[in-house]
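Quarterly update, task 2.4: flavin-adenine dinucleotide-bound model.
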Amino acid sequence: MQDWNALDDETFRGEVRRFFREHHPQSLRYASRRPRWREVRDWWATLYRHNWIAPAWPREHGGMGLSPAKLLIFIEEQESYGAARTPDQGIINLGPLLIRYGTPEQQRKYLPPTLSGEYIWCQGYSEPDAGSDLASLRTEAVLKGDEYVVNGSKIWTTMAHDATHIFLLARTDKQAKKQEGISFLMMDMRSSGITVRPIRNIAGHEEFCQVFFDSARTHRSNRVGEQNRGWSLAKALLGFERIFIGSPKYCQFTLAQLAALAAERGLMDDPVFSDRLVQLRLDTEDLASVFARFAEVMRNGSETLGPEVSMLKIWASETFQRITEFTLESLGNAGAIAAALPCGDRTIDAVNTFYYARPATFYGGSNEIQRNILAKHVLRLPE
Ligand SMILES: Cc1cc2nc3c(=O)[nH]c(=O)nc-3n(C[C@H](O)[C@H](O)[C@H](O)COP(=O)(O)OP(=O)(O)OC[C@H]3O[C@@H](n4cnc5c(N)ncnc54)[C@H](O)[C@@H]3O)c2cc1C
């Protein structure tokens, strides 16, 4: 197997770029919604066949074993190519968790089918009354014999309708303090007692679901880590991946669309339009340089990003929303059409991109929560 870390950065970047150009389906680039499994399974199979499905996993577990610096290059290229997002919870979250904290049996049982795409995972953390305040979750798992019996409900579970398995946080001790009575469990979605109800979002797409557990069972060997210690495991997942939620790719892509629209319609002659476009361009430049600064921290081999990384998430999501709002406005009447409209040598699907930008201020920790983090841990303001 190739040792990617032995290549110099520019050669590696060239290899990644070539790979995406040669193998990624054109029709899936820059999708304005999350593709379903049936649409991306061939792309997954291609990545798997080339051993490219898990860039961050160690090579002994079937990954590419990339160093943080190489991983960053990989993700930069993947993002700038507009590669399709696969149902990647197993690759991004569960796999690294099992590699670090799972038993050898769990690793043997779950890692190979997670790589091959036989097992598709979804993340069951949020509940109807536990989102930002996740530790107040109430889905309960009671150990009876060798099995946990799970009752409760998870919500906003992305791609649960395509998943074969779910990893979830469940309360295993109601008497303990909030964070201390939670365990981390894995379950087969085909177990009896699990019902999945898709939720239609504002754009009319079913990307997430509510999942109900009605005395659904999972063997105790499917608990990762110790009983009641699941909270710290879940927290450990929020490693340096948080930086990627602040990638400037969406802003850069939508800004390029806006510039194409401006060129086609001669909008730059309008001083109000050009002023706003330049402002958005500067905002995106600011974002790119803040992103580069955090990326540099990673490149230096430090895996811990400070609480100031919250700034990146806020700036990326809000700039993305501002650009999509202004694009809609600039389209005039055509801004009411939810379809891909021809514009120069490309198409613009402004309404769906606008919708796509809306939840960005929610997922990955809402922007208000990110501002709280900045206030408390960076500015040291009082509670
Ligand atoms: C597209 C999308 C995909 C998702 N996918 C998943 C998934 O796969 N798995 C999963 O488990 N979850 C998923 N989520 C859920 C996501 O993690 C939650 O939406 C998020 O944590 C916020 O929780 P909430 O929706 O319950 O909002 P709430 O926590 O109820 O917040 C409502 C509002 O109150 C504000 N607020 C809350 N607390 C405070 C506070 N202390 N100070 C100031 N303001 C506050 C929030 O910022 C927000 O504006 C997804 C969400 C979205 C939008």
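Highlight for this quarter: Residues 271-299 form the longest helix (29 residues).
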